[in-house]
Design brief:
The structure holds 2 protein chains of 2 kinds.
Chain A lengths: L3 E4 L2 E5 L4 E7 L7 E6 L4 E7 L6 E3 L2 E6 L4 E6 L8 E9 L5 E4 L3 E6 L1
Parallel strand pairs in A: 2-11
Antiparallel strand pairs in A: 1-3, 3-8, 4-5, 4-9, 6-7, 7-8, 9-10, 9-11
Chain B lengths: L3 E4 L2 E4 L5 E7 L5 E8 L3 E10 L2 E4 L6 E3 L9 E3 L8 E8 L7 E2 L3 E5 L1
Parallel strand pairs in B: 2-11
Antiparallel strand pairs in B: 1-3, 3-8, 4-5, 4-9, 5-6, 7-8, 9-10, 9-11
Chain lengths: ~110, ~110
């Protein structure tokens, strides 16, 4: 079945902890894998990964894609309460389409 | 700096009523789409458009119609609302067919 699976579904950590969020998928032929952060309203873009093995970084967040093993991870170091959100992983589908298949998300709660 | 604008933000309908969710973007994006987000289901694609005059179905199109007469606007029509259409609806746009989606703030629809 063509799914994007995220784990864990929820996670509670304390400020300063490092977390790793997982995203696995089942097809090999796709253009991009994307990560979004969703707080109360609209998802906001974090990363787009198109090549395997190349890490992308933005401040305390980083992400990498492994196309051979069919997974991606999102790392957040030195977590802050403002990192509390649902993190969504999605991959594009269709050879020339911009549509996304989303995972169900990982709900991260960062406690002071 | 409006981005993607959705209206209304909240709506309550009775079963069988029809309505239109409006979506407008001011970024001159060719690609636009509608997703619904349900608890435990993640975001699922309803319909999408790769340019004015071109629309196609996504994963869950039944009960919805779309049209794309201009680049800016992509309304979603519910023909005869059902309780199963109670959801949060997100409109999104992208400059490319396989890239970063910019989401609107969402429209929460309740069908009684």
């Amino acid at each position: 079945e063509d799914k994007v699976v995220q784990s864990p579904l929820s996670l509670v950590v304390h400020e300063g902890d490092t977390v790793t969020l997982n995203c696995s998928y089942e097809v090999t032929n796709f253009r991009s894998l994307l990560w979004y952060k969703q707080e109360k309203k609209a998802p906001t873009f974090l990363f787009m990964l198109t090549s395997s093995g190349i890490e992308k970084k933005s401040g305390r967040l980083s992400s990498i894609l492994d196309k051979k093993e069919l997974f991606s991870i999102l790392n957040i170091t030195a977590t802050q309460t403002g990192d509390s959100a649902v993190y969504l992983c999605a991959r594009t589908y269709g050879g020339s389409q911009g549509n996304l298949i989303f995972g169900k998300g990982t709900k991260l709660s960062v406690k002071p | 700096n409006a981005g993607v604008t959705q209206t209304p933000k909240f709506q309550v309908l009775k079963t069988g009523q029809s309505m239109t969710l409006q979506c407008a973007q001011d970024m001159n994006h060719e690609y636009m789409s509608w997703y619904r987000q349900d608890p435990g289901m993640g975001l699922r694609l309803i319909h999408y458009s790769v340019g004015a005059g071109i629309t196609d179905q996504g994963e869950v199109p039944n009960g919805y119609n779309v049209s794309r007469s201009t680049t800016e606007d992509f309304p979603l029509r519910l023909l005869s609302a059902a309780p199963s259409q109670t959801s949060v609806y997100f409109c999104a746009s992208s400059a490319t067919r396989a890239g970063e989606l910019f989401f609107g703030e969402g429209s929460r629809l309740t069908v009684l």
